[in-house]
Amino acid sequence: MMSGLAVDEDKDIGMGRGRRRLWLLVGHGAVGLATAGAFLPILPTVPFLLVAGWAYARSNPELRERMRNDPRFGPAVREWQDRGAIPVKAKVMAVGGMSSSFAVLALSSPGYPVLAGTGAVMAAAAVYVVSRPPPMDR
Q1: Can you tell me the mean pLDDT for 54-60?
Q2: Is it the case that residue 112 has pLDDT exceeding 80?
Q3: Same domain membership, residue 70 and residue 120
Q4: Exposed/middle/buried for 18, CB within 10 Å: 0-12, 13-18, 19+?
Q5: Residue of 31, 39, 55, 76 with fewest CB within 10 Å of its CB?
Q6: Which pTM does this prediction carry?
Q7: What is the dihedral of CA 112, 114, 116, 118, to 10 degrees?
Q8: CB–CB of 88/129 below 8 Å?
């Protein structure tokens, strides 16, 4: 009976390492996309950093703290993680991006059901983004 228990423990240890590696891979991938987003105007940066922070919290807390303390992106990440705050400039860019995307979709005439569904999702997302508090001045 003891040997069966030891095998189960070994599987749990292996699964734990595998999951940590998976979360680490997700975190690194999100940081890569965030880095690309710093140079490409159509790709966001901070949302990918938030995903990376979430993944790093499950795999490598030191990397999460390093990201939170980054001089450029750390303040926005900390404000979101600690208070759910979004800077006003980011709100304007998010709502503007959704509006322009919806305009392009409307001009491509995909049909009213697609426009209605997409418009409803975008409107809900815009309301959520606008309802978030602004960051605290420090």
Answers
A1: 92
A2: yes
A3: no
A4: exposed
A5: 39
A6: 0.69
A7: -150
A8: no
Residue 62 Cα distances to 13, 23, 53, 55, 120, angstroms = 21, 14, 10, 12, 39
Q: Which domain holds residue 120?
A: 86-138
- What is the token pair recorded at 14? 């292996």
If DSSP states are collapsed to H, E and C, what string results for 78-135? HHHHHHCCCCHHHHHHHHHHHHHHHHHHHHCCCCHHHHHHHHHHHHHHHHHHHHCCCC
Residue for token pair 């991938």: 29
Say whether both 40 and 24 belong to one domain.
yes
Same domain, 60 and 96: no
Same domain, 50 and 90: no
Q: Which residue shows structure tokens 């983004």?
A: 129
